[in-house]
Amino acid sequence: MEEQAVNRSLLLKEKEESVITNRPETDSVVEVRGSDCSVGLECLLNVVRALGMGSCLSGDGTDANAPPYGAETASSDGARLRRRLMKSSSMELRLHGVPGRMFLNGSSEVASLFSKQGKKGINQDAMLVWENFCSKQDIIFCGVFDGHGPYGHRVAKRVRDSFPLKLSAQLEWHYKNENGVSDTGSPLGTYKFEEIGFKKIDRKTSAPDQVHNVFERTFKTLKESFLKAAKVMDKELKLHPDIDCFCSGTTAVTLIKHGQVIVIGNVGDSRAILGTRDHNGSLTAVQLTIDLKPNLPKEAERINLCKGRVFALQNEPDVARVWLPHANSPGLAMARAFGDFCLKDFGLISVPDISYHRITEKDEFIVLATDGIWDVLSNQEVVDIVAASPRSSAARTLVEVAVRTWRTKYPTAKVDDCAVVCLFLHSDSDKSAYSLAEESLQASVDKSNITTTEAAADSVVNCSRLARTAPESAPLLGEETVGV
Questions:
Q1: DSSP secondary-structure letter at 336?
Q2: Is the peptide bond preceding residue 330 cis, with omega within 30 degrees of 0?
Q3: Is residue 277 within a helix (H) or strand (E), and if so which, with residue range?
Q4: Cβ contacts of residue 155 below 8 Å, gap of 6+?
Q5: Among 187, 159, 165, which residue's Cα sits nearest to residue 175?
Q6: Termini Cα distance of the chain
Q7: What is the pTM of this model?
């Protein structure tokens, strides 16, 4: 009797420790090492053997009023699930209360965003505009996310909420550990784009070369941060206990605007375009991202090397899809996505395609949108619609035009979900600043007696060479690409 009671108490204690130790965390990625895994497995097997043999829970050693073991486990599992859901909901509520963070239909001084459900079921598109990102007044984060699969709407919202936080964390780590910059008030610290690297600039280096070096270093930093954040994001989805991402996923086209620098990360077939003036003053469209479809040569090559298959169905010959090696499923119409782990061993990746752009005074706005827009409207049509609309309603007008076009262009097809973010690059004060920058720049060029690195840095900062930097000095968009 005594031995049985002792055994039962040890078992209950072991169960309690197992619950505490193995409680999943929804907001962190846990790495399990081999030795820890084997120890935990042996402990679990011992418990199972004991339960199967009845050596711990015998008739004489049990409490008559105690609930059955299975009922107790179900109750604790339900409690843990409720705690996870409450934790997730609490995080969402905290995020939704952050000033300057918009994820619903609306507008601000610099952005307009709008999403509308199509005719295919629940709206699986999500969007985000986050002003004062990383607690910096001159940084804006934007993104649109197009979910797919049974739980695509949940994946899209999860990436919308989590990816910016991971990107911010990567930036903080990078700046503090690699550049020796520390500022507790902001993840970006004092690492300003106008000030990067001047302490190492050769006095003989010309101002244009200085500015070019600044942009190159800035782009490298943000590129690495985007890539690492995407990797952590996909790992979190794979381990997420409440969202089934096996056959569900999302695209993501996201950007950071810091001052006059735009860095874009693209996963999937959502798209970003720029509305800018040409040399004649006409407003034209410039595509900033590549639609990462499976039939692109590099994408198809990677998928085929990983034993995945790429082909289109007979009833839609223009839509290439990714298929499993020995089954005609799931038929994903993009080559990169977050989630969709059924295809991750067969060529699908979540590595973003990274590019950057230097804003000039001729650039007016950027449009991020899911494929519900691009399937029926051209880049130039989108630019014309946004340019002709008031800023506050530009995104809504674009979505409404796309929906009407769906009905006329594809009358028998179901209208797709649509999500749009319009980011306006200049206000009246910005244009005045550009004029002042031009005058300052000319004055600085006339001064040929700059003798110190600090003077050269101040000249570049005060003159804001961003407005005068030649476009050809920057790499072509899409040229800086990361793939497997």
A1: B
A2: yes
A3: strand 271-277
A4: 147, 149, 237, 243, 245, 248, 249, 250, 338, 339
A5: 187
A6: 64
A7: 0.69
